[in-house]
Amino acid sequence: MHAQHKPATKESTKIVFHTVLALACAALLVALGWFVAGGAQARATNGAWLAEGWLALGAFAGFLTTAFLTRRGRIVEWAGIFCWLAVLAAFPIVHELSGRTFWPYCLLTFTFLFAALHLGGFLASEIGGFAHDGFIERPIRIAGISAIVFVFGIVFFVFREGGPILWEKGTNFSIGEFFGSSEWFPTSLGNKRYGVLLLIIGTLSVTVVAIVIAVPFAIGGAIFLSEFCSGKLREWLKIIIELLAAIPSIVWGFIGITVINPLIIKWFGVSVGLNVLNASVILALMAMPIMVSIGEDALKAVPDSYREAATALGATRWQI
Predict the structure, then answer these.
(1) E strands present in 195-313
(2) Please, are residues 191 and 258 in contact by the beta-carbon 8 Å criterion?
(3) Burial per residue of 127-151, b for 16 or more beta-carbon CB atoms within 10 angstroms, e otherwise
(4) How far apart are CA 217 and CA 213, in angstroms?
(5) Which of 97, 157, 165, 306 is 20 to 30 A from 292, alpha carbon to alpha carbon?
(6) With contact defined as beta carbons under 8 Å apart, do 101 and 158 qualify?
(7) SS3 content of the chain, % helix, strand, coil (to 5)
(8) Is this prediction's pTM over 0.85?
(9) Which residue, among 271, 272, 245, 269, has the nearest Cα to 257 in the 3D structure?
(10) SS3 for 25?
(11) What is the DSSP code (8-state) at residue 139?
């Protein structure tokens, strides 16, 4: 019985020791941050320095040292949990330093300590040569879950801001008018109207014209890259296409305003070049790199046996 409890006691002692070590590093960095930020003078001038950030830096140093010394990820994780609880208990002290309220402090310390724990443990495991998959898998899993949470959060906030029009007084909202009316006056004081018919028509028009422009060029580019291009030319073209696909949409919008807009005014003799054609050209330019890349991958996925069989039957290269 004594032999069974001895390893557990030893591990508990290690957890306490490394928790104290991480907290000591965190306290030293907080004190350093208080000194660098100017102490009471910074607080008096409403310069609320980020005490939690200095705390996270110190905790990172502590967790990194702990991981190197113990080489056991589980001990580092328990030390991280106890560190966070101790940091929460020290809220009155940090509140005097930064003036932050409890819940923002709680969220910031959890986020910073979580990042410090996993970054320190990951670096120690990579450099020190011991394996603990939790330092890699857990942040990836949380990142995947957070993406779903953010999507639902966006839907929630959009509905929270736009939902009141369904029961707001003086709106007279109806689904038929919403989809069938072209009147859009959301800021009217006496008669607010929400009609998205023109918005839907405009979206469909831009989409259809963009497809007409983009699809032929995209298919042609994919066929050229897959069947006729080879060597360094193909590599360079692939790099250029990937770079074009990575251009942010705001950059394409700026090109539409500064480049496409004057060209449409000049060529078609219209007074304004910000129209369906402009938006369709920009949307086609945005979609073509992605369509070319996907089409080229799809053509490359065709088995070589099909090509060889077609060649044996007398098909030309264009027919294949």
Answers:
(1) none
(2) no
(3) eeeeebebbeeebeeeeeeeeeeee
(4) 7
(5) 306
(6) no
(7) 80, 0, 20
(8) no
(9) 272
(10) helix
(11) H
DSSP H/E element including 9: helix 2-37
Contact partners, residue 33, CB within 8 Å, separation at least 6: 49, 50, 51, 53, 54
Closest CA to 18 of 134, 121, 155: 121
Tokens representing residue 69 in the block: 């010394």
d(CA 252, CA 286): 7
Tokens of 276: 């369906």
Q: Hey, what are 139's tokens?
A: 């942040």
Indicate the pLDDT class of residue 171, thresholds 50, 70 and 90: low
The answer to whether 109 and 55 have CB atoms below 8 angstroms apart is: yes
Tens of pLDDT, residue by residue over 252-266, are 999 999 999 999 998
Residue 34: Cβ within 10 Å count: 18
Which of 93-107, 130-144, 219-233 is the least confident region?
Answer: 130-144
> How many angstroms separate the CA atoms of 276 and 282, rounded?
10
What is the identity of the amino acid at 113?
L
| Residue 12 · residue 78 · CB < 8 Å | no
